[in-house]
Amino acid sequence: MSGENTVREIGHDEFDPYGTLALILIYFAILSVMWVFMYFVEFLGNDLTVLA
Amino acid sequence: MNIHNYEKLWLVLAMVMIIGFISTVVYGATAVGIEMVNDEGGTIDSTALEEDDRFAEPRVERVGDNEYEAYVVARQFIFEPDPIEIPANSTLTFYVTSPDVIHGFEVVGTNANAMVIPGEVTELTVELNEPGEYGILCNEYCGGGHHTMEGKLIVQPEDEFEQGGNDE
After folding, report:
1. Per residue in B119-161, pLDDT tens?
2. Residue A44: closest CA among chain B residues belongs to which residue?
């Protein structure tokens, strides 16, 4: 893959996509918060709930 | 196969999240006691509701201390009885059935929401702790008057509740 235009060549484990990692962590955090809100506040808080 | 550390990290996080989702639902079903509406209510001959003890005369019946049962007939385009009256701090089990077409039975703005199918009895139990008034509506299109099909659930303060009409 190394051609004339290659500036720097790095191995598989040296490539660290911080940006992608940060985005995914933010995405997971949003999902968790939304799930907690949806289940515990919107659903469980929405009495009357079917209990039998 | 060479998997990057970050990729391992978000695979693991995704798994943890799935386990989290499942455990919250398990928590709801066990600790909180949330149930799904199922076929427990059994079947009934929808052409002969008047021969059934429960539905011949749709009503609310007291079956124990703070325990009530409401036998509700959902038909084009009313709910019987209407209103359903109950004292606060009670447990109410609805038995709902239909003599004509599929209806919905939704206590508006709550999780008490089920389908009413001719030939089946829909059974759902809820707890009513605070006095108040709820609307009941049909949320399955059932014909020309569907949009007018509604009822009321009135939860009265315990001391104001009259037993009248329930112990005949």
Report:
1. 999 999 999 999 999 999 999 999 999 999 999 999 999 888 8
2. B28
* Angle ∠(B33,B27,B9) on CA atoms, nearest 5: 165
From chain A residues 1-30, the ones with a CB under 8 A of any chain B CB are 12-13, 15-17, 20-21, 24-25, 28
Would the CA dihedral through B110, B111, B115, B120 be positive or negative? Answer: negative
Contact residues, chain A, for B35 at CB < 8 Å: 50-52
Q: Given this structure, which CATH class describes domain B39-160?
A: mainly beta
ipTM of the complex: 0.77
What does each C-alpha distance from A25 to A13, A50, B5, B147 come to in angstroms?
20, 35, 14, 46
**CA B129, CA B7: separation in Å to the nearest integer?**
49
Contact B110 A15 (CB under 8 A): no
Q: At what angle do helices B5-27 and A18-36 cross, to 10 degrees?
A: 0
Bridge pairing between strands B84-87 and B150-156: parallel
Contact between B6 and A43 using a beta-carbon 8 Å cutoff: no
